[in-house]
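Researcher: I'd like a candidate sequence for this fold, 107 residues long. If you have to choose between options at a position, lean toward the conservative one.
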Protein backbone atom coordinates (compact mmCIF):
# COMPACT_ATOMS: atom_id res chain seq x y z
CA UNK A 1 0.00 0.00 0.00
CA UNK A 2 1.28 3.42 -0.93
CA UNK A 3 0.93 6.13 1.73
CA UNK A 4 -0.46 9.51 0.73
CA UNK A 5 0.47 13.03 1.76
CA UNK A 6 -2.32 15.00 3.41
CA UNK A 7 -2.20 18.75 4.01
CA UNK A 8 -4.45 20.36 6.61
CA UNK A 9 -4.25 24.02 7.54
CA UNK A 10 -5.03 27.57 6.58
CA UNK A 11 -5.61 28.89 3.08
CA UNK A 12 -2.04 29.82 2.12
CA UNK A 13 -0.61 26.45 3.23
CA UNK A 14 -3.29 24.42 1.48
CA UNK A 15 -3.14 26.49 -1.70
CA UNK A 16 0.64 26.22 -1.86
CA UNK A 17 0.54 22.44 -1.71
CA UNK A 18 -2.34 22.26 -4.19
CA UNK A 19 -0.24 24.27 -6.62
CA UNK A 20 2.60 21.82 -6.00
CA UNK A 21 0.32 18.95 -7.02
CA UNK A 22 -0.87 17.54 -3.68
CA UNK A 23 -4.48 16.45 -4.10
CA UNK A 24 -5.35 15.48 -0.51
CA UNK A 25 -5.84 18.81 1.23
CA UNK A 26 -8.27 20.38 3.67
CA UNK A 27 -8.54 24.06 4.47
CA UNK A 28 -9.74 24.59 8.03
CA UNK A 29 -10.08 27.39 10.52
CA UNK A 30 -8.51 27.26 13.97
CA UNK A 31 -11.82 26.25 15.58
CA UNK A 32 -12.17 23.07 13.49
CA UNK A 33 -8.47 22.25 13.21
CA UNK A 34 -8.13 19.85 16.14
CA UNK A 35 -11.15 17.69 15.30
CA UNK A 36 -10.18 17.45 11.62
CA UNK A 37 -6.57 16.63 12.52
CA UNK A 38 -7.76 13.82 14.80
CA UNK A 39 -9.87 12.42 11.96
CA UNK A 40 -6.92 12.52 9.57
CA UNK A 41 -4.70 10.72 12.08
CA UNK A 42 -7.09 7.77 12.06
CA UNK A 43 -7.06 7.54 8.25
CA UNK A 44 -4.58 4.77 7.39
CA UNK A 45 -4.18 6.07 3.82
CA UNK A 46 -2.10 9.02 5.05
CA UNK A 47 1.60 8.47 5.77
CA UNK A 48 2.54 12.13 6.04
CA UNK A 49 0.35 14.92 7.39
CA UNK A 50 1.58 18.44 6.77
CA UNK A 51 0.02 21.16 8.89
CA UNK A 52 0.45 24.72 10.14
CA UNK A 53 2.93 24.96 12.97
CA UNK A 54 0.92 27.75 14.62
CA UNK A 55 -2.34 25.78 14.49
CA UNK A 56 -0.62 22.64 15.78
CA UNK A 57 0.78 24.51 18.77
CA UNK A 58 -2.78 25.39 19.83
CA UNK A 59 -4.15 21.84 20.14
CA UNK A 60 -5.10 20.17 23.41
CA UNK A 61 -2.29 18.66 25.51
CA UNK A 62 -3.76 15.15 25.06
CA UNK A 63 -3.44 15.37 21.30
CA UNK A 64 0.10 16.75 21.63
CA UNK A 65 0.99 13.75 23.79
CA UNK A 66 -0.52 11.38 21.20
CA UNK A 67 1.47 13.06 18.42
CA UNK A 68 4.67 12.62 20.45
CA UNK A 69 4.01 8.90 20.88
CA UNK A 70 2.97 7.82 17.37
CA UNK A 71 5.34 6.92 14.56
CA UNK A 72 2.76 6.74 11.77
CA UNK A 73 1.61 8.96 10.22
CA UNK A 74 4.44 11.46 10.41
CA UNK A 75 3.08 14.92 11.22
CA UNK A 76 5.18 17.74 9.79
CA UNK A 77 4.51 21.27 11.05
CA UNK A 78 5.24 24.04 8.57
CA UNK A 79 5.86 27.64 9.70
CA UNK A 80 3.60 30.36 8.33
CA UNK A 81 4.41 33.97 7.53
CA UNK A 82 4.89 34.73 11.24
CA UNK A 83 8.01 32.53 11.27
CA UNK A 84 9.23 29.44 13.10
CA UNK A 85 8.28 28.61 16.66
CA UNK A 86 10.50 26.89 19.21
CA UNK A 87 8.04 23.98 19.48
CA UNK A 88 8.14 23.44 15.73
CA UNK A 89 11.91 23.14 15.82
CA UNK A 90 11.64 20.49 18.54
CA UNK A 91 9.14 18.45 16.50
CA UNK A 92 11.30 18.81 13.39
CA UNK A 93 14.32 17.53 15.36
CA UNK A 94 12.32 14.45 16.43
CA UNK A 95 11.39 13.73 12.81
CA UNK A 96 14.98 14.23 11.72
CA UNK A 97 16.19 11.79 14.35
CA UNK A 98 13.55 9.21 13.37
CA UNK A 99 14.12 9.44 9.61
CA UNK A 100 17.83 10.22 9.55
CA UNK A 101 17.44 13.39 7.46
CA UNK A 102 15.76 16.77 7.73
CA UNK A 103 12.56 17.09 5.71
CA UNK A 104 12.39 20.82 6.36
CA UNK A 105 15.94 21.67 5.24
CA UNK A 106 16.21 24.32 2.58
CA UNK A 107 18.45 23.63 -0.37
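Model: Candidate sequence:
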Amino acid sequence: MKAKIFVIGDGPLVMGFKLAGVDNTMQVNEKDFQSELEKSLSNNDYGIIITNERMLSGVDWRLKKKLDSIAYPVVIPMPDQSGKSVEGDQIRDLIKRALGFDLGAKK
